[in-house]
Amino acid sequence: MACDAITDILVRETGRFGPEIYDRTFATTPWIGLPKKDTFPEGMGEVISNLTYERSAPVTAEPAWTAISVSDGQEGGACLPAATKISIGSTTRTFQLYRRVLEGPDFCVEELRSPFALRKQLDQILAILADYVRLEWEIRHRHEYFRMCETKVVVVSSCPPVESTTMAATYPADCPAAMLTQGILNRYKSKLIRNGAAGSALGRENGGPIFTLICSAETSDRLIFDNADIRQDIRWGKPSELLAPFGVERSYRGFYHLIDSYPRRFTCGAGAYTEVAAFDTTAATKGNKAVIRSAYETATYEESFIFDPTVFTCRVPKPITNPASNFRFDPVSYMGDWKLKNILDRVCNPDGTIVYHRGIMAQASEPIHPERGVAFVHLRCDPSCNLVTTCS
C-alpha cells in the first residue's frame, strides 16, 4: 500500500543570515609595543635637532708613558710634562613630523533601517578600521627602525657580509646569497657590545647582555634547529618584563627571538631592492577583502633586525585645543583613533544624515643611538614538508 504524498504548502525564507557574524583577524607583531614613544616638542620649529656627544678613546695600541725624572735646567723641570690633548666630538641629527590621514566609508542613516543585526555589523566594521590602523603603525615602525639603523647588512656567500655603517637609506648594492646564521648574529653581537649596546639590551644572563632578534618564524626555527651541535642551547631564564607580553620565555645563544608575522620581504636585481607588500585585495561577496599577496609568500629575500629600544624614539604630537583666548579647536588624536564626522553641506549633506570615520596619524622619529641597531637582509626558505611516503 502506497503512502499519501506530502505536499509542502509552507513558504520559507531563503538566503537568511544566521545569528552569528564572524570576522577574520591579523597576527600580532612586536612593532606596536616595543618602540619607545614620547611627545613631540612644541614651539621649536618644524625640523628639530638633537645633540649627541660622542666617545673619545686612545687611538694608539699602547700609549706612551714617560718616566718621571729630574730635568736639570729644563723649563718647568719634572713638573711640566708633555700632555696629550683629548679630542671631543659631537653629532647633530634632525627629525620632523610626518602624517597619514585615513577615512572609512560613508554611512547614510536612511540605509541603516533594514540591515539585520545592525549593531553587530557596525561593531565589526569598527574592528576592521582599528586593525587597519594597527597595521599602518606596524609598517611605519618597521620602516623607521630600518631607516634609523646605522648598520645595514647584506648576507652574502662570503664572510664578512657586505655592510654599510652610515645610516644609508637602502641596503648596500648587493643581492643576498645566504641565509641568516647564528655565526653572523654572534659577529654583530660582539660589535654591538663594543658600541655600548649592552646597557640597553632587554635582558641579561650570567652577567652578559641578551639582545633581541626580530625575525620571521621560519628564520627563528632555522637558526635554532638547523645546527644539531648548538640547538640544545635554549635557556629558560626569566625574560625581560618588556618582552613578557610578547610570550618570550627563553633565550637562545644570547638572543631573544621575537616573531614578526609580516617581516619585510624583497626581490633584488643587480643590487636594487624592491619591497613586496604583504597584503593584496580581492573581491569578497560584498566589497573587497585583504589577502596575503602571493608574491610575498614566494619572495626570495627577507629582513631581520637586532632590536634595541634606544635606536630611536617615536614622538607623537599633542593635540592643540585652546592655544589662546578665542582660539578653540576640536582635539585630534594623532595615534589614528577613529573619530565620527558629520559635516553639514548644503548640497552633499544638507540634513546631517551622512557620516564617516576619520583617523589622523602623525609622528616623528628621533634618532638617539643609531649605532645600536642592525638590519639584515638575507635569503629566506619555507619550512620543508618532510614528507614520509613509505612505512618504516
Oligomer: single chain
Mean residue pLDDT? 88
Note the beta-strand portion: 25-35%
Low-confidence stretches: none
According to DSSP, the number of beta strands is 21
State Rg.
Answer: 29 Å
Question: What's the N-to-C terminus distance?
Answer: 60 Å
Portion of residues within helices: 10-25%
Class from helix and strand fractions: alpha+beta
Strand count, sense and closure of the main sheet? 9 strands, mixed
Please tally the helical runs, counting DSSP H or I stretches of 4 or more residues.
4
Order of H and E elements: EEEEEHEEHEEHEEEEEEEHEEEEE
Broad shape: globular
The tally of domains stands at 1
List the helices and strands and how they pair.
Layout: E1 36-39, E2 47-53, E3 90-96, E4 98-103, E5 107-108, H1 118-148, E6 151-154, E7 162-164, H2 182-194, E8 203-205, E9 208-215, H3 217-225, E10 234-235, E11 251-252, E12 255-259, E13 265-269, E14 272-276, E15 279-283, E16 288-292, H4 294-298, E17 301-307, E18 312-316, E19 339-341, E20 354-367, E21 374-379
Parallel strand pairs: 1-18, 6-21, 9-12
Antiparallel strand pairs: 2-3, 4-20, 5-20, 6-7, 8-9, 9-17, 10-11, 13-14, 13-17, 15-16, 17-21, 18-20, 19-20
Overview of the molecule:
- The chain has 392 residues and is α+β, with helices and mostly antiparallel strands.
- It has one domain (36-53, 90-319, 327-379).
- It is built from 4 helices and 21 strands.
- Strands 6, 7, 8, 9, 12, 13, 14, 17 and 21 form a 9-stranded mixed β-sheet that branches.
- A hairpin with a 2-residue loop joins strand 8 (203-205) and strand 9 (208-215).
- The longest helix is centred in the middle third of the chain and has 31 residues, at 118-148.
